[in-house]
Amino acid sequence: MSIDHLTGKSYGPFSVAVTPQRVSAYVSATGDDPIRWTDVAPPSIASVALFAAAPEFLFGSDVGDYNRILLHSDQKFEWHRPVQVGSELAVTGSVDRIRERNGMAFVSFSAGVVDHHGEPVISSASTFIMSPEVPPASEAEQPEPDVHRRGDNDIVRPIPIPGSGMDIAPIAKSASRADLVRYASASADFNPIHWDHATARSGGLPRVICHGLLMAAWMFQAAARYTDQDLPVSQASLRFKKPVLAGDSAMIEGTVSAMNAAQAQLDLTLASAGEVCITGQVRMNR
Q1: Which CATH number is correct for 4-285, 3.10.129.10, 3.30.70.20, 1.10.132.30, 3.40.50.2300?
Q2: In the chain, at which residue ranges do the beta strands (DSSP E only) sit?
Q3: Alpha-carbon distance 203 to 71, whole Å?
Q4: 238-255 confidence digits (pLDDT tens)
Q5: Counting runs of H as helices and runs of E as strands, what totals does the chain give?
């Protein structure tokens, strides 16, 4: 079986109501600053918009068993305007390209988000790796930690941005298994590798792992604290290299690689257990 025939297929539009309750639940689930995000949503709400459309493809009957392996390898977002709390968004997804090699499908999936006037709000481009083959266990099985166990989870507050070429202040983040269930509810990303041990093991993982876009939210928080703009981040490009296990500690570090009067670019890494798990570049508005 091949899924190449799905190239060009569109999904949606889907409606996303950005209610105060939804934003509050999302801010809490991502460990963001509850004081700041009341009139506008944090930039990582882009993940909620993406997962209004992506599951229709990823878990739809059209893909058959191709989601036995499902990895999120790359993610790009572009923000065109702030997401106002109380607004109504429409999301349309599209399978732009599928490349199949050695039983693996490399899927380019885009999503466009517009407001009720049809004006663009967020654009995203994702790369998913999918396969119908059951992978061998790549690591020894590990017992799941206590449902509430997690490491340090810093709540970021506004601070002055360092100068060009300087390191940012690191932040510590972690998510318990209970946190991952809360994030799944807030984001609509219910991939069971994030909450079910047997499914995680069947995907070759030692145990349950954190959502990639939850960790992306942490990285966006590391950038957004350096500006008071309603649209703190304009572009982001992330590469997911290794998973972070539920309950384990993660550290976000980085450098201000470029800066002018209007914008700054941060080169960021998220590491856990001594290994880099995500690399990314985030362009922020000053």
Answers
A1: 3.10.129.10
A2: 10-17, 69-79, 88-101, 104-114, 120-131, 171-174, 233-240, 249-259, 263-272, 275-285
A3: 9
A4: 999 999 999 999 999 999
A5: 5, 10
CA 84 to chain centre: 20
CA distance 103 to 270: 30
Q: Which residues of 161-179 are buried (b: 16+ CB within 10 A; e: fewer)?
A: bbeeeeebbebebbbbbbb
Express each pLDDT in 149-205 by its tens digit. 999 999 999 999 999 999 999 999 999 999 999 999 999 999 999 999 999 998 889
Q: How many residues appear in the chain?
A: 286
Q: Is the peptide bond before 43 cis (omega within 30 degrees of 0)?
A: no
Single-letter code of the amino acid located at 54: A
Does residue 22 contact residue 51 with C-beta atoms inside 8 Å?
Answer: no
Other C-beta atoms within 10 Å of 104: how many? 16
pTM of the model: 0.95
Q: What CA–CA distance (Å, rounded) separates 191 from 70?
A: 9
Angstrom distance (rounded) from CA 194 to CA 19: 25
Short-list 89, 116, 99, 75, CA closest to 236: 75
Q: Read off the tokens for 101.
A: 């090699």
Which tokens in the block code for residue 196?
């079910």
Q: How far apart are CA 155 and CA 210, in angstroms?
A: 18
